[in-house]
Amino acid sequence: xxxxxxxxxxxxxxxxxxxxxxxxxxxxxxxxxxxxxxxxxxxxxxxxxxxxxxxxxxxxxxxxxxxxxxxxxxxxxxxxxxxxxxxxxxxxxxxxxxxxxxxxxxxxxxxxxxxxxxxxxxxxxxxxxxxxxxxxxxxxxxxxxxxxxxxxxxxxxxxxxxxxxxxxxxxxxxxxxxxxxxxxxxxxxxxxxxxxxxxxxxxxxxxxxxxxxxxxxxxxxxxxxxxxxxxxxxxxxxxxxxxxxxxxxxxxxxxxxxxxxxxxxxxxxxxxxxxxxxxxxxxxxxxxxxxxxxxxxxxxxxxxxxxxxxxxxxxxxxxxxxxxxxxxxxxxxxxxxxxxxxxxxxxxxxxxxxxxxxxxxxxxxxxxxxxxxxxxxxxxxxxxxxxxxxxxxxxxxxxxxxxxxxxxxxxxxxxxxxxxxxxxxxxxxxxxxxxxxxxxxxxxxxxxxxxxxxxxxxxxxxxxxxxxxxxxxxxxxxxxxxxxxxxxxxxxxxxxxxxxxxxxxxxxxxxxxxxxxxxxxxxxxxxxxxxxxxxxxxxxxxxxxxxxxxxxxxxxxxxxxxxxxxxxxxxxxxxxxxxxxxxxxxxxxxxxxxxxxxxxxxxxxxxxxxxxxxx
Length: 615
Prior knowledge:
single chain, 3-stranded mixed sheet, 59% helix
């Protein structure tokens, strides 16, 4: 071990300084403005491709392809789009595949938030082709990835740290969703839950600024109304409580089924060697084209169909067709590796689940008097929230896109119940299942760092016997070699004066160096060790003590009283740090494979935690 004071301190790992926050906030504002214009450009591009492909007119108006007069030719339009996307993925970048959010997450987790410049241009182009040719997706996923890509590029151009670059990527991603749905709070929550994996001031402030600026520009370009206009809805929460509970559970099982089926389809296309990989999106698009010809409402983003469901303008038979056929084409298209966002189609599927549930229950139990509009809004964010493990984000999205805050109670209940079912049955979310297959760790729930929740005196050892300053190196090494308990518990021992005052620390490295100079070991331990020990205090956070150990490249800190810095009250070392995490594991329990969390019943964990803490 190295000496506690003689070794010059190692330079601390670089950390974003507080004076950098204004610069990051300024860049975040620029990213928010840029992302809003990107969203506007992508919407216009989708409108152009839709009009060219389905109406043969040059127009940037955003409209649904379901009124196209093409007839049988509608089957081939998605196939052409699928071929183009496959070629772009093959000769451009494979990262354009998918629904956008997992790809942005991958950049954070694997490449220090660096995204290639070509992805920033190919992703929106591929998404515009995919959605414009009838793809059953929304524009939000590609805009999230594109905004994140431009945020990352700005961070790389300005030469920022990896932590700052991650914040700017999240600013772009959150601003993309905020600008798409006129939902600033949803954009902030998305960045925190799915891109940053943290809640810190250094990241929260820039993300809020980016989303605010994006929505401000968005309202100039698109207008300030709600994304989905709904009329007056009676949610009748308490009388309908049992039915809302049933709907939440139903949405949870639907999320599990959706995620599992998508996983199987992705595996199927990965193993499909008969058809070249770049033609897989075209193969999925062929199925889409056939279904779209028979039932055109599944084509495109379907924002108009979502409004029809929320306003209860559709018959039960049509809603059920929307539910099952939209789910089928979305799963098929995603599994084949095309480009597009999942938020809009999954909102449509969720709303269809809620509306059809209410209509069916009313027919079976006429006294229930359920409102299809209320149950459609209540379910709207549940499917995606549960399958993505971002329930907080998408329940807020349901509020902000409808501007109906009377729906708070049913939306909260349905979404969290769906999340509980998915959390119990799914080991990974729709966003992280690919990472899990590749053995890539993904941060889970945002939690308080354990070392910032305990103090040194809760973890320090109190059984270390200090050695007298007159003891010779030879005597100490003999006692250590005999295995005397007082001298073999640690690689560093405190040295005290005759009055019991802490005067230094001696380590094994110090003893070896002393024996090289004096093989007889006549040198005293005080002469061999450090005279000015680096210390910790019992009332400080364990995190601060750990940082001090890292900065000075040492493995232990004597703990002294603040009132008397020479009075040693304990010892803090690496085993103390392990004790903190072990104790947290004991308090929370270990999540086992299966249906529920199980507590360790053998008692060995408790015994081990006590042993580590004592050491």
